[in-house]
Amino acid sequence: MSQFTLNLIVIGLSFALYIGIAIYARAGSTAEFYAANRGVSPVMNGMATAADWMSAASFISMAGLIAFTGYDNSTYLMGWTGGYVLLAMLLAPYLRKFGKFTVPEFIGDRFYSQTARIIGVICLLIISITYVIGQMTGVGVTFSRYLEVSNATGLWIGAALVFCYAVLGGMKGITYTQVAQYIVLIIAYTIPAVFIALQLTGNVLPQLGLFGTHTESGVKFLTKLDQVVTDLGFNSYTGHHKSTLDMVLFTLALMIGTAGLPHVIIRFFTVPKVSDARKSAGWALVFIALLYTVAPAVGSMSRFNLTATMWPGAETGETFSQPAISLDTIQNDPEKQWMRTWQATGLLNWEDKNGDGLIQYYNDAAAAGPAAEMATAQGLAGNELTTVNNDIMVLANPEIANLPGWVIAIVAAGGLAAALSTAAGLLLAISGAVSHDLVKGAINPGISEKGELLAARISMAVSILVATILGLNPPGFAAQTVALAFGLAASSIFPVLMMGIFSKRINKQGAIWGMLAGILSTLLYIFTYKGWFFVAGTNMLEDNAANWLFGISPASFGVIGALINFAVAYVVSNATEEPPVHVQELVESIRVPRGAGGAVAH
Amino acid sequence: MSDKQSSNAYWQANLRIIWICMAIWALVSYGFGIILRPLIAGINVGGSDLGFWFAQQGSILIFIVLIFFYAARMNKLDRDHGVDE
């Protein structure tokens, strides 16, 4: 059976499963559409949250980010998990007790202000829309790579599928499909990792393999990897090479950004009780950790495998004990078919610059050391593995390790599951903000339940359409999604929610000015280095460490934005009157679990 | 009034547990994983050092333990103060 047929069968089966679930779990009321009638068990919700959270970036890109940077990019591992501790202790239980449907609704009620609510809606829309573009692009790329259809066709198929279960089922349909998608994606991620950990270290568990012994050479795997990459003139894998301050701030920005992402927060509205919200955050992290503890193993092992492919000597002994891979092998060896497949996508490329028939992979920026000596001895004109995209470390992983075809098909289905589940969660957050906060909250408060449900479905359909069109023509800023979405979530939504719960003194004026100061300072900092509205060439300062304020990268600035938000809100609130009594009572009431009850359809 | 005092005591107890958990949260990630890594570099873990383990694996595992610990302590606190569901 050809690889294409296998891919088609596996992906087709996974899609049939999602559609089956969508038909089974249709939503009949707004409580079902926005919050699955608050009937989701904490473990199920944890699994759905994990699928909601783990996007194309976690599944496809993260291991590659770690592979080529090593220790310094541990920031992603800690940052994207530590946020759940904040959610469990600082936000989720209280927002569940509050018992409404959307994040801006809490902001509007707690700060007794329509303006605050609208600012919340705007932040939510910017965050979720930029985030959803990335998912749709990921869907298109995966389809075109594995099903040999055009990018656009792939996107429309993905959009039609999301439409089926998101518009029909709302939160209820999305929750149950996300549970199925989690299972697909975790199997897809784990199977190749287990195979590779077995091959390299003899350990079944990739988590143990990472710290285990490299079978071929008999030394610790990480020691071996460090030696191989430093031989080639790269930074050591386990060493600390970046600024400590920026590492701390970036991790913190990812943590509070995670806790402030609306599509993650609303998942905690679906559990029956406050105590379930706490527990559910724990389960979410368990399911996320199943992937996040495998990712560093996948990263390091695929880096090793790639290097050993380029320098066969590295596998058994000294890196330069055998010549580099020959052009002839790459072009004709059936085992190296994957290199030719990925060259066609543009994600991997090589060039025999000095015409010696060998492709030497090394860091040509290193002036001294074994790599530089080798380059002089062999008369090299520069690194000859000219392109290695981060993303192929996961996508090509099974092929690099020569795994059977069905594993490749499962990885394709897993990548799609990761992108689609996150897209659906984001679309739900967007449609809730539009139909509940804008239509019902501001434009037509008298709307009937049936009318609101229809409005929710229409806004969901429109958001899918907008996301698909933006995915087809990704604006220049698509790649900056991480900096923008996390920066805004960290500087606006997280602080305002936390203050709303932990302080009775922060009032309307404080919240509004705090949010505005947080967002504007963060946007200003990002635009200064990335260009105004990400238009290339309009940046006022070159985007490099020497220009950054105190060495803080634009992606880490969300933390400073959050501090500004807290400070402004505190000062302004203390200069103005106390919040009214009913608001102080609201704060009292969300702090105790008793009386959370069922859904509040107000 | 007694209701108010009890709910105040409940909230203070909650804050205390949060502070303890957040201190551990920061210690394992920002502490052992990043800033204090050179201090514990002498402790070898599978080809690298303890700080590397905390940054790539240990902190995530401790985060999980922290959340379940917090959830269990809060369940007990809810019952003790009669505010459970």
TrEMBL record, chain A:
- Subcellular localization(s) per the UniProt record: Membrane
Membrane-traversing stretches: 6-25, 46-71, 77-95, 116-133, 153-170, 182-201, 247-269, 281-301, 406-434, 454-472, 478-498, 510-528, 548-572
Record membrane topology: Multi-pass membrane protein
Regarding protein family, the annotation reads: Belongs to the sodium:solute symporter (SSF) (TC 2.A.21) family.
Query: Where does this protein come from, organism-wise?
Result: Paracoccus spongiarum
PROSITE patterns, per database record = NA_SOLUT_SYMP_2, NA_SOLUT_SYMP_3
Q: Which UniProt keywords apply?
A: Cell membrane, Ion transport, Membrane, Sodium, Sodium transport, Symport, Transmembrane, Transmembrane helix, Transport
Pfam annotation, one family? SSF
- Which InterPro entries does this entry report, sorted A to Z? Na/Glc_symporter_sf, Na/solute_symporter, Na/solute_symporter_CS, Na/solute_symporter_VC_2705, Sodium:Solute_Symporter
Q: What is its main location?
A: membrane
Q: What is this protein called?
A: Sodium:solute symporter family protein
Keyword Coiled coil recorded = no
TrEMBL record, chain B:
Q: Which InterPro entries match?
A: Na_symporter_ssu
Protein's UniProt name? DUF4212 domain-containing protein
Residue span(s) of domain Sodium symporter small subunit:
8-84
Enumerate the Pfam families for this protein. Answer: DUF4212
Keywords linked to the UniProt accession: Membrane, Transmembrane, Transmembrane helix
Q: Which residues cross the membrane?
A: 17-40, 52-72
Q: What taxonomic ancestry is recorded? A: Bacteria, Pseudomonadati, Pseudomonadota, Alphaproteobacteria, Rhodobacterales
